Amino acid sequence: MTAKTAHRSAPARRPTVKTLAEMTGYSIATVSKALNDSPVVTDETKARIRAAAESVGYAANPRAASLRTGKSFQAAVLMPISVAEGHEWHGVEYAEILSGISRALEGSSYQLSVHLIRDAEDGRNVAERIVRRGLADGIVFSGIRRNDPRVAYLSSMDFPFVAMGHCDTASGHAYVDIDSGWVAGDATRRLISGGHRRIALINPDPDFAYAQDRIAGFRAAFAQAGLAPCDDLIAEGDLTARFGRESLHRLRAVTDPPTGFVCVNEATTLGLLAGLRDLGLSAEADVSVISYDDLNVSEYFAPPLTTYFQPVEELGRCLGEFLLRRMAGEAPGDLVRVFRPRLIPRQPDRLADAGQTHQQRRKA
Amino acid sequence: MTAKTAHRSAPARRPTVKTLAEMTGYSIATVSKALNDSPVVTDETKARIRAAAESVGYAANPRAASLRTGKSFQAAVLMPISVAEGHEWHGVEYAEILSGISRALEGSSYQLSVHLIRDAEDGRNVAERIVRRGLADGIVFSGIRRNDPRVAYLSSMDFPFVAMGHCDTASGHAYVDIDSGWVAGDATRRLISGGHRRIALINPDPDFAYAQDRIAGFRAAFAQAGLAPCDDLIAEGDLTARFGRESLHRLRAVTDPPTGFVCVNEATTLGLLAGLRDLGLSAEADVSVISYDDLNVSEYFAPPLTTYFQPVEELGRCLGEFLLRRMAGEAPGDLVRVFRPRLIPRQPDRLADAGQTHQQRRKA
DNA sequence: GCGGCTTATAAAAACGTTTTTATAGTCTTT
DNA sequence: AAAGACTATAAAAACGTTTTTATAAGCCGC
User: Fold this and answer.
1) Which top CATH class is B180-309+343-363?
2) Closest approach of B81 to chain A, Cα-based (Å)
3) Domain B74-179+312-342 CATH (choose: 3.40.50.300, 1.10.260.40, 1.20.1260.10, 3.40.50.2300)
4) CB B304 to CB A245 under 8 A?
5) pLDDT for A52-109, tens place per residue?
6) Rounded to whole angstroms, how far apart are CA atoms B91 and A57?
């Protein structure tokens, strides 16, 4: 007996259900049920077993549970690798999204794991692998395309997911979104009411679902004012500063160039401002720029710009919450939330006067 | 028999070693060994079993393997949650780091999982939980403190980890770093040789190990030029634009204010430029600013700034590679790499002339 | 031609859970 | 007072691997 037990300190192995069974005198079956709050075990027994678990710092081995139940206890996030290409700033703070999701998952038994994807199509393959191999119990992804293959696949498999952005081709999936149509529309309205008539929309790739929302909002603002929309002034590209600068150069070169600009994010805005400086133009005196901001950075631009601000970490948290609820079995149709960003008015702060000037200049 | 088998399509369960054993006629033990390239099994047998595995798209269940071996097949990244606080831009593109690590892990059997931490101390607790519960086989983290509790703990446990940044209190751990001392020193030298004598160092919290490196480089540049360092012009704080702006205001209010600035990252730089505009100063005519850049964004500042550029995704990839090698048993002392960022000269492009002006102004 | 050695594979145990099935004991019901 | 229902717990099986131990066959030396 004494020869069998180690004579030094024990290897301090992690406690298991067996440990708790021996401690309390119950069987491992009862221990497991008690810890999982099964109704078949007495409250008193539960209390005793839980006390033992507490005292010894027991934590269930998720992999063993996973093996038995088939659940993975992993929540997967598909992170676009494009964020890292060309080392060009894109102004998408993915870390904030991850942070938000992670916070929502805190306290649950789910671990956050990150899978890189190159684009939506690659994302579909990764999603398929996740589903096939049981790598996760639910998936979150962003950059929703108009006809998103990930949404289509996961919907068809009835696999829990939450998208950051709506996708109209699938019926009733869970998503969290920003009211991009309203943002673009409201910004355009502000510029129109400030006297601008030639307004450019700096937009993402038109294949993104929210790109269409922005165009719709942009057009609606003109229609509301009884004007024809400036469809020729819609620039489409990636979300980098380089694209913002190039767009400005191209747009200002057309006949009857725009005097107002509605930007899609702060990286493009920064590039656009640099482009204005290239041409010796000022975003105060010569043109008006309205941005969309999720990094709170437009305040530091020259000049500080009017922006629609949406802390993206809040979106992330909502994504995480929805994913938990979706994995718990809630219907996807109930898990929809659209955030409306907050307007932070800065430049153009005397938009009406500035607009007046533009209009007069155009007439002259 | 027919009554026993389902009459519709089978549930299409994932293939297991058992499936392969039945297919090939070997035992599951042999199958397992063949797949793991054990030397005890014939090459011919291996080939047969692998062909079967290939044909049926077999992929081992990592959780079952994990249960048996104790390995988790997870690589953990400790991501500072501070990136998301106050919604203030900090200019740390953590997604790029994650992307780099993830790329390095591609093809290995390791999954990337993300754990949020509040600070280094909290990181220690999370690391301890990871080690205790076997949540991962290796850990990557950044923001190394002078006396980092995570480094101390993991070193003492001999648990594989790679730090982004050196830590001198522990002996011989694996790390990837940026030569911050050289960056700060070289930037300071440039400003000194441009005629600047009062130079400010915009630095992170002094408790970060690299903050000390920067101060050392800063001082060395003065010593090298036979000058006394401007220790009174070292500003210390977080890496936000707000801190950059506030620092500028504070530093310009002292008697004999700085004419040169060495910034720690692009968020502080952006704030500093905003602060200069607040005071009606120009980073072209009145003062000189040199930045450190990992987002390639200084090009779009007003004016575009000279910067030391280091794509952080490369660091991430190196972190991932080192972690794999560390988990494979390599000695930590061999896994050290220090990147030296590339100088991108922009403003001040006629530094010598500008410096002259500053010096003359100071004399007058 | 047979004990011992090597070789190729098989059998079985183990990892830590959860879940199904079994087993006593107690309580109803008539 | 005995059959049946219910209750609380125990025993056992299962998840899919890996690893240890066992087994049978072939070969060697003499």
Assistant:
1) alpha beta
2) 6
3) 3.40.50.2300
4) no
5) 999 999 999 999 999 999 999 999 999 998 654 667 788 788 888 999 999 999 989 8
6) 39
